Amino acid sequence: MINLKNIDEHWKILTGSIIILVLFGVLPSYWVSDWGWFSRSGALLVIYGIYIVWRDIKGGIHSALDLLDSAASEKLDEKSAEFTDLVKGTQKKNKRLYDTIEFLIIGAGTIIWAYGDLVNNACS
Fold this sequence. Notes:
Layout: H1 10-32, H2 36-58, H3 63-76, H4 80-115, H5 118-123
Helix pairs in contact: 1-2, 1-4, 2-4, 3-4
C-alpha cells in the first residue's frame, strides 16, 4: 500500500517553524542577551513559509493523496467513484488547512522580523 505519511504534513510544517524560531531565534537571543537574533529568525521563518507555499503550488504536499486516488481507481473499479469523492473532499479540506498554515507562518515571520528586536526593550 502507499506510504501515507505525507497526508498529515501540516504537523511537520508547524514543528519545523517552531524549531526555526527556537534554534535560530530564542536560544541565541537568550545566550547573548540580544533579541536581534529573534528578529532574524523571523526572516528565516518567512523564507521557510515561502518554501512551503512553493511546494504547495508545485503539488508536493498533496502527492500522497493523489497517489492514493490513482491506486484506488485501479483496485476498486466500480466503487472508485465514492472513494475519489472522499479523497477530493479530503484534499479540499487539506488545501484550506495548508493555506491557513502558510499564511500564519509568513505573517508570524514578518511580525517577528519587524518587531522581534523590541523584545530586548521589554526585557530590559
